[in-house]
């Protein structure tokens, strides 16, 4: 099934919300879906990072990114994304593309949609001459191990292939590698509020 990735526009807003509704059903709080003001801010601030994937004539997934100057300092998702608006955190003269979200409809999972969105962001890194693509990952499998090990050990087990994590394992398959574990990255009980920053370095630099 062919997947086409393009920039989203304000005309896509209703489709983007329906996509999030399908992808993040209750108990996920609806107030955390993208707001129209946030979508507008993405397009005003960095339209190249606003991507939607279409397959078989339907909106199948979306992703949003911005540019930062990576300094290795711990941060939260809210800080990295400017609470989802990106205006205050986007740095046009930065060195890294930072993915703040990716969303794939359950109807299209396992059909290459997420891979197409990752590939599009890698291509953008190369086109803009950036050093890397960065993405903060949930580690929802960690909740099953947190009582007996630190997040660092769990992540290492996932990297070695001893444990499969629903999010991090997929990111590893896309060529990203963990570079930083961040406590309190986002409010997420399954991940014990811990995030992993993963990197894909620009192979042309």
Could you describe the 3D structure shown?
With 205 residues, the chain is an alpha+beta fold. It folds into two domains: 1-130, Gcn5-related N-acetyltransferase (GNAT) (Aminopeptidase, 3-Layer(aba) Sandwich), CATH 3.40.630; 139-205, no CATH class. Helix content is 28%, strand content 26%. It has helices spanning 13-23, 36-45, 77-81, 113-128, 151-160, 168-173, and strands at 3-7, 50-55, 58-68, 96-104, 132-138, 177-183, 194-201. It has a seven-stranded mixed β-sheet with strand order 1-2-3-4-5-7-6, with helices on both faces. β4, α4 and β5 (132-138) form a beta-alpha-beta unit. The longest helix is centred in the middle third of the chain and has 16 residues, at 113-128. It starts with a strand and ends with a strand. The relative contact order is 0.14.
Keywords:
single chain; 205 residues; alpha+beta; Aminopeptidase; 2 domains; seven-stranded mixed sheet; 7 strands; 28% helix; globular
């Amino acid at each position: 099934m062919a997947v086409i990735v393009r920039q989203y526009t304000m005309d896509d807003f209703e489709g983007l919300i329906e996509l999030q509704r399908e992808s993040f059903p209750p108990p996920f709080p609806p107030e955390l879906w993208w707001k129209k003001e946030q979508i507008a801010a993405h397009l005003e601030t960095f339209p190249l990072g606003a991507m939607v994937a279409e397959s078989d004539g339907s909106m199948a997934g979306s992703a949003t990114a911005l540019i930062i100057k990576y300094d290795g300092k711990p941060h939260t998702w809210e800080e990295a994304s400017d609470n989802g608006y990106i205006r205050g955190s986007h740095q046009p003269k930065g060195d890294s593309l930072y993915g703040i979200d990716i969303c794939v409809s359950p109807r299209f999972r396992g059909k290459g949609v997420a891979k197409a969105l990752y590939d599009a962001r890698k291509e953008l890194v190369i086109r803009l001459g950036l050093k890397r693509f960065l993405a903060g990952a949930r580690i929802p499998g960690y909740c099953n191990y947190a009582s007996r090990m630190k997040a660092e050990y769990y992540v290492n087990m996932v990297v070695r292939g001893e444990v499969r994590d629903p999010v991090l394992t997929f990111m590893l398959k896309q060529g990203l590698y963990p570079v930083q574990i961040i406590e309190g990255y986002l409010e997420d009980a399954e991940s014990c509020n811990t995030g992993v920053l993963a990197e894909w370095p620009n192979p042309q630099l």
